[in-house]
């Protein structure tokens, strides 16, 4: 069937090129600017370790040291993520090996905003369903009456005084469940577990990034840093206790090492002195449920990239540059332009950019010209590349702080952006080389092990070993 396209307005090719140059200026990060961001980022990490309640909170996790690789046994893991709730049965076999049985449960948007205790009740109900479905004989099954340690992956910033405790600082990733911030979420979840009389013992409350760090090191001991680039963004690494001044009063041996959950999505929040925010980023921030907060996350995470591009398109529609004579109301709904669309646009292999035709016709009932589609793909690339280069600034800050550049290290990376966005990892590596020169090649990211499942189980195992040996969970 022959497809007919509307004719572009006169000089549209020149108009698209002019606008693209403007957006190139707005969204391009020079190596010099990146190095300035790394300096400020490194300083924020140090401040977060020195004092409580800082913008980048640098949360002590009370996960002491690296796994031996010899941890064994059956453990449950529950992961409350940004989109799904996941329950896992992990059998650790030692020597970096494991078996995993898991089930995912979808989280409705309403549940993210409903009362916090109701949210944890739902988590306990799903855990009960999983346990009842996996009781039986044979590998990957739970034995009748077996009480298992549980690692609870709660991927939101919490202050911790021990590993089975955590007070929620603030919700991120679009969550807003009331009656939760400032409360001990481990205690709330234990209350929900008791309601359902579940045969589990909450052993460890961890962040998914901390779990990713431990799981990745379990399999690849060269791993020194873990990062998540997905719906949200975060990093974790192993710090020397002597360099965490804010916990000096706890009596933790200074020669010990402890994993730090950076919660770096908050970098440059409130003051906005260092990150290159455009007017579109400011609109995203001001319209969010947490204005002023999570400044770094709002520039680089998968939750926001599609919205940034949509705002650019809406501005060009208002200026009479795009989609003349067409009804564009479907594009006016916030967050209707998914970040997955940017991935598809960048990876479209066809000369006519048929994937982009499909996105605009199917989801928004809009016809596009080839010139427009080329512009959209170039714009997606600018926004995606900026996200990756800013991500490399965060990694570089930890590398610089810990002195990992000379010897090099592996960085376990997870999340939908890292795993699915075309060229994201390559752009991160390119950014590291722009910051550090040729030595940037010594820092290599790779697809991480399952931190929220396997990592949570390993940490539960490490905590159980520590507890069984009579060691305190906070000292």
Question: Overview of this structure, please?
Answer:
The chain has 2 domains: about 270 residues, 3-Layer(aba) Sandwich (Hexokinase, domain 1), CATH 3.40.367; about 170 residues, Nucleotidyltransferase, domain 5, CATH 3.30.420. About 40% of the residues lie in helices and about 20% in strands. It is built from 15 helices and 13 strands. The protein is globular, with a radius of gyration of 23 Å.
Defining traits:
475 residues, alpha/beta, Hexokinase, domain 1, Nucleotidyltransferase, domain 5, 6-stranded mixed sheet, 5-stranded mixed sheet, 13 strands, 18% strand, Hexokinase_C, Phosphotransferase, ATP binding
What strand line-up does the widest sheet have? 1-11-10-9-12-13
> Share of helix among residues?
40-55%
| Structural class by helix and strand composition | alpha/beta
User: Which stretches of 5+ consecutive residues score pLDDT under 50?
Assistant: 1-6
Continuous helix count: 15
Order of helices and strands: HHEEEEHHEEEHEHEEEHHHHHHEHHEH
Overall structural domain count: 2
Which term fits the overall shape?
globular
Count of β-strands? 13
What is the typical, i.e. mean, pLDDT? 91
CATH topology of the largest domain: Hexokinase, domain 1
CATH-defined architecture of the largest domain: 3-Layer(aba) Sandwich
Strand content: 15-25%
**End-to-end Cα distance:** 72 Å
Rg over alpha carbons: 23 Å
CATH class of the largest domain: Alpha Beta
The main pleated sheet reads as:
6 strands, mixed
